[in-house]
Specification:
This protein has about 375 residues and is α+β, with helices and mostly antiparallel strands. The chain has eight helices and 15 strands. The strands form five sheets. Strands 2-3-6-15 form a four-stranded antiparallel β-sheet. A four-stranded mixed β-sheet has the order 13-12-10-14, with helices on one face. The chain has a three-stranded mixed β-sheet with strand order 4-5-11.
Length: about 375
Amino acid sequence: MSLGTKPRYMLLAAIGLIAAGMVVGATHIHASGKHGEPRVGDGVAGPAGMVWVEGGTFQMGSDARPAQRNERPAHPVKVHGFWIDQHHVTNAEFRKFVEATAYVTTAERKPDWETLRVQLPPGTPRPPDAALVAGGMVFVGTSGPVALDNIALWWRYVPGADWRHPLGPGSNIDAKDDHPVVQVSYEDAQAYAKWAHKRLPTEAEWEYAARGGLEQATYAWGDEFAPDGKQMANVWQGQQAQPFPVTNEKTRTSPGTSPVGTYPPNGYGLSDMTGNAWQWVADWYRYDQFQREAAAGKQVVDPQGPSESYDPYEPGVPAYAPKRVTRGGSFLCNESYCLSYRPSARRGADPYNSMSHLGFRLAMDDTQWQQQAGRPPGTAQAMASP
């Protein structure tokens, strides 16, 4: 079962309607690549805080041993140039949006039965209104090692969890303005994008950007997890003393997000393309989308994703239940359970979900930027040339 669908599953599990569980995992592959100096917009020579990614052709997906079936096969894809945020949208940036628009996130609203029921088997009874309480999914960890086949042991649906209180009512984001905003749904990300005059990247754009110019590398920075012993991303592996999902009972600390830009950027100058927090992208999720694209027998150009979701491998969830793609993994990813800090790793999530390890970054077409700047299209490409 997809990790991204869990919050609303756990909400219903908490009121006795369903149960939940999931397994993922794996490891290893090879690569090399070249790239130039990143071009970061300053509000004049490009949108502020965004990096210009020159278009090109790459092998999307993976046939390597760690790849899950939804990542296979690797297949040629071409994307045109685009701007993409240098880092996740932060708490400070999201706060400006909320203050300007009075927007209320999905985690702050009472769950809507119509959006819940499409994720459930036909005939699932409607729960009483009193059981439908606003909140989000929070990682709570365990006190000791457990079997990794039931995420209900380390995740909990917490009433009152939202972007300001990502771990629940007793938590806050004080002194975390530069951390990725989390507990935001696909719907929330789209609302922010509209306000910011940007858009979510397509899945192809996201993976192309995440690879940073490296062809089929295991990670966004190369083939070694920790080159020269250096940690390259905020993931569980290499940073937590206990095995996943065990947290430190003595200090009562648990893993979480880090300030954006804490770790080295990839070859395109992009921070945290993998690790720190999962990221929403624009596409509907089909587990077999890469198989469909490869079967066409020709290079795909600027794919926009499927027209609907399809995932027959999540027990208890209708195969065509709405799901959007999430990418990049998070601070919880590790080699024993969720090896998703790889550019090809992908998951599907209910668009109304919010979780304590799920955020987003945005993209923009050059034509859109030039229109905003009052210049002819093509300026960004000219400026990005050596």
